[in-house]
Fold Transporter.
Amino acid sequence: MNEKEQWSSRFGFILAAAGSAIGLGAIWKFPYVAGMNGGGAFLFIFLLFTLILGLPLLLAEFVIGRSTQTNAVSAYKMIAPDTKWYFLGYLGMGTSFLLLSFYSVIGGWIIYYLLKTLTGTLNDLTPEQYNVVFANAISNPFVSISAHFLFMLTTIFVVSKGVQKGIERASRFMMPILFLLFLVLIIRSLTLPDVVRGLTFLFEPDFSKLTSEAILAALGQSFFTLSIGVSAMVTYSSYVPKEESLPKAALSIVFINIVIVILAGLAIFPAVFSFGLQPDAGPVLLFQVLPNVFNHMPFGMLFFLAFLLLFLFASLTSAFSMLELQVAIVAKGDDLLRKKWSWVIGLSIFLLGIPSALSFGPLSDFFIFGKSFFDLADYLVSNMLMPIGALLISIFVPVKMKKSVLYAELQSGGGIPMYLFRVWLFILRYVAPVAIFLVLFDVLGIWDK
Ligand code: PHE
């Protein structure tokens, strides 16, 4: 997409931004991080962060993008010339570089399951057998690296051609189908024997389980699912026409996201307990649970296939936004450069992802700071870099942008009452930076001394 190009329809931007937001974060990451952090209390804090911090920050990124209509680095330069704030664009670039490197590994797992389901080899196994099949696959370097490669290849291909628009149009019907399949999944899950334990785990907050690490994980999770803190949303909103109401767009994206997170939780947790799996199994959780849920239902494998296709689609649309952000910075609207840089950056991301892909096999005993390469990359991105990026963006907007420009951006295409505008600014200026700062430092143990 050229820099001056815009989304094709009013709805186009919401679809694109929702496409960036909805992906592995809500469907794969949320259940496992919630599972590792006690369930209900985690969900509660996650929702709180999403509404109080995520929503205003998402809107902040939208405002930066649309008011400047350019890539993430130039946007900061344009607003705050002769300052170093533009490094926020590079921070976003670096963060999404690392992010996509492990994101694509999980995307690869979906591709693997797709192929397995297509060949009919996932029919009628026991929960233990499913675990073994999956563990064997992800620990096999050839399988995990090729699957990761396929996912990256698709991402590079689409971004290099700048055809996201077409893809975004496809999400107009893909997303509703994904939603329907979730309902099928949930009906199935809610009729399993251990449904009460699953629901209790997900919805009953036990705040004694909330460690400072869990609170940081919830903060990171809410930024991760909304694609906040890496300027991906700055980039996408730079293609938005003025007639679009940014507050409305932000609100719908947050809403859809919360719905998907809850649907994913409803689909997964009753099944976890019913099939004797562990809620704290980590990144493999969703993939251990899914085949069991689809297995004993009528047309199960067909539904599974459809689900995987849509899940892959949702993850790809998020991956596009991560690569797009980086390519937009270096290609600056030039189509030839776009092509070249999509491949250079995309293939480098593939290489960086290899140790993450091997973290479930040959490198599973290789720890840095007590974490596997995959876990370390994920931790750095979700629990450090994204919160830091978000913290800086929340300071940047009220400090560096004129109130009149901010107000005009929020009003254009719809508008919100003055008091909400004030609340928004107040959150950005005070609440968000202080909250993020406290949560980050709490984990570093600064308050314990
Ligand atoms: N929000 C995406 C997801 O939940 C991940 C993402 C983060 C995408 C940051 C772009 C930028 O899967």
